[in-house]
Amino acid sequence: MNPSAPAATQPPSGSVHPIFKLAGLIVLLVASGMGGTCLARWMRSATEENQVEVESSQAAKGLPAALARWKKPDLVLALTAQQYGYLLPCGCSRPQVGGLERRFNYLAALKDAGWPIAAVDLGDIAQKQGPAGLTNLQGLVKYRYSMEALKLMNYGAVSLGQTEANLSLFKILGEYALNNPEPRVVLANLRNKESEFPEQVFDTSVFQPKGSSIRVGVTAVTGPTAAEAMKDSSAKFEPSREAIPRALAALRKEKAELLVLLYQGSIGRAANDQSEPIAAAKAFPDFQVILCECDEDEPPGQPLVVKHADGRTTQIVRMGHKAKYVGTMGVYKADGSFTFTYHLEDLGEQWLTAEGKEKEQPVVELMERYARELDRGQFLSKTPQATHSFSAAQSDSKPRFVGSEKCKRCHESAYKVWQESPHSHAWQTLADAKKPGLRHRDPECIVCHTVGFGFQSGFVDETKTPFLKNVGCESCHGPSSEHLNSPDDPVWHRLMNPWKAKPGESAAESKSRTQRMDQFCQKCHDMDNDVTWSNQGFTRKWPKIAHPTPKENR
Predict the structure, then answer these.
(1) 53, 227, 343, 492 — which has fewest CB within 10 A?
(2) Residue 308's CB: how many other CB atoms inside 10 A?
């Protein structure tokens, strides 16, 4: 099913839409992968019944085609989650998806169309770990800049997830919420918020977006499974079933109409009544929308809809990893009840800032400030240097990185292949990068564009270790000083080329060895940085850099 197709509009409270007339249907699963051609056709026809023809002037305002068919909503809920520190695409391949700049531009397009926006985020804004084995040195800084970007986008509520807890809530909240009241951080069942995080974490957030008559009320809880995963963190939780009634009472007191629950917990693959967000929807039917975690990278294109006995419904939305999408919920108010339309927007290159307009885009400047802070703070030199595994090979060995030029003397054929490959100027691509610049000062970029960064004797910077710029021989083969000193030592031959085919290798052994090579490459050529890799990337690209020893030298 097309993930960007809008969901069928839900009926007003007390009425039954034709889509719900299956006998005994309590939970309607409208999720990717559920159905085949018949279901897709059925859903499409139900959707089209609720679409309207729009004036060409509205389509001209930059709305996606799917949204241009909507009747203008009374409110748009912009739903995001699980950013995992993904500030913006790295630019190493195209077309990449996601990033805060594109999200800003998308929300700006909705605003320019005159649509009132209420934006909320589930949490897990912080990254789990640094890329390619790096320590999470930049995690707090990236979280702060992410929150600043959400403030620029007028987010009304943001919650906290496992990644924030793993970095320590004391550090996370001290990095931003301690001195910044917006966007408001909500987590109703955080037991120790009043004593340890006063005026930093709240039960609820109630706000009325400009241009809308609808008061939005948001609360958040961490479910039992997620709370168990965070038991060793600074976060302490009370049962969500105890916190939610208290939060609902507070929302009613502030006359909130559209109630949103941010639920830390996932539906899981089974999607049954035991799934925590579904159970929460059934136990607390006052919530019209629940935003929860998604176990998969790619989110479902439609909400999961829970229908209650009194005719009301709860829309459960999942958003996927690295915030590559924005869930867009059109909200329509009539006679005291709400109906909904849904669209999942992928943040592709259609949302890049137009050339020449960069200075008018605040998130672009925010990312430039982030890059300058990393440079000014000398994050390259602050990155811890680990001991390479080769150091354990022999008790008296001290392997060091020596640079690709040292390899040329004995491996001239392989050196020529490397020299003619993009690997040989990988560092320069960072130095030349724009929007933002200074990528060659960002450890999380440098680690995949140099030799040995993050290891003892590895790349430090272009002044101290210029011979380790670019992706070189030792990026794959490891530090070669010991091999250079003892070229015939079989220990170092084996360590530096674990992928070498053995005589008489079977087809199964060849496949296994190739898979190990592929997995090694994916430390940097992952699906986010190299979007074409999933399409047999190793099979297509390895022949371009394959460098077997010439027969005369074997």
Answers:
(1) 53
(2) 14
